[in-house]
Amino acid sequence: MTRVAMAFVSRRPVAEEVVQETWLNVVRGLDGFEAKSSLRTWIYAILGNCARRRAEQERRFVPLSELAVEEAAGDDLGMSRDRFFEKGRWAGMWSSAVPPWDGLPEERLLTSELRTALLEAIDALPRMQRAVITLRDVEGWPPDEVCEYLGVADGNQRVLLHRARAAARAAIERYLEEGTGC
Amino acid sequence: MLSCADIVKLVTDYYEGRLSSAERGRFEEHISICPPCRSFLTQMRTTVELLGELREEDVPPAMEEHLLAAFRDWKRDE
């Protein structure tokens, strides 16, 4: 939730306060909760309200749709161009191997080190990419709900998701390369 | 014919079901003959699966303490 709140308020300590305030409001409001929406939707709606209010108080509120457009700008593959041949007959084809990960023992993929590496990669992302990948892939929201919640256009949401997933993939790749010493 | 770089660029649109049927056909044609791209696609799928296992850690202990205290106060007030 802190990572999602950071889309609105940017700074982590403020986002943590927003999450705390959210939970207090949840506890206080639980009696009034009518199961018209899921509990999750309701909690995140409270989070969004708290975070927006906080961002406005701090005069830091930038419409998330604008941030999303900024972050989605440019032609970014989500991978270094160095991985592909630039010219000639093989232009655009892989210039280095793409080793399969599935040859690795299952338990290697779920270590706490990898968990930490993935979370660090998410934390290092620009804030809208971080919010999109957290809601989509970590929390499992459908794309339309993420667009509505953050107020971003569907096309931008997809570009942000793509870039964020690419960064997560690269983090796993680095982790595996370090682990196997190659 | 799509290049491998095109596959990397389009992979999310492919998984999101946002390619036109013609684009989808070209995408699948490429991956059917390109083992490195198939490997890349598997990596992306694994990435998404692993992200799903990161599901929010429990409420941090300090915050839990704070919330429980608030909850007790609130109960007392009633």
Query: Kindly, what is the distance between the CA atoms of the first and last residues of chain B, rounded to a whole number of angstroms?
Result: 70 Å
Classified by CATH, the class of the largest domain in chain A is Mainly Alpha
The first-level CATH class of chain B is given as: Mainly Alpha
Helix content of chain A: 55-70%
Order of helices and strands of chain B: HHHH
Total number of beta strands of chain B: 0
* Shape verdict of chain A: elongated
According to CATH, the fold-level topology of chain B is Arc Repressor Mutant, subunit A
Give the SSE order of chain A as H and E letters: HHHHHHHH
Helices and strands of chain A: which structural class? Answer: mainly alpha
Mean pLDDT of chain A: 86
List descriptors.
heterodimer, A: Arc Repressor Mutant, subunit A, 8 helices, 0% strand, B: mainly alpha, Arc Repressor Mutant, subunit A
Q: Could you walk me through the main structural features you see in this protein, from its secondary elements to its overall organization?
A:
- With 182 residues, chain A is mainly alpha-helical.
- Chain A has two domains: 1-61, no CATH class; 62-182, Orthogonal Bundle (Arc Repressor Mutant, subunit A), CATH 1.10.10.
- Chain A has eight helices and no strands.
- In chain A, helix 4 (64-72) packs across helix 8 and helix 5 (112-123) packs across helix 8.
- Chain A is elongated.
- By secondary structure, chain B is mainly alpha-helical.
- Chain B has a single domain (4-77), classed as Arc Repressor Mutant, subunit A, CATH 1.10.10.
- In chain B, helix 1 (4-15) packs across helix 2 (21-33), helix 1 (4-15) runs parallel beside helix 3 (35-52) and helix 2 packs across helix 3.
- Chain B is rod-shaped.
- The termini of chain B are far apart.
- The interface between A and B is large, with 44 and 35 residues.
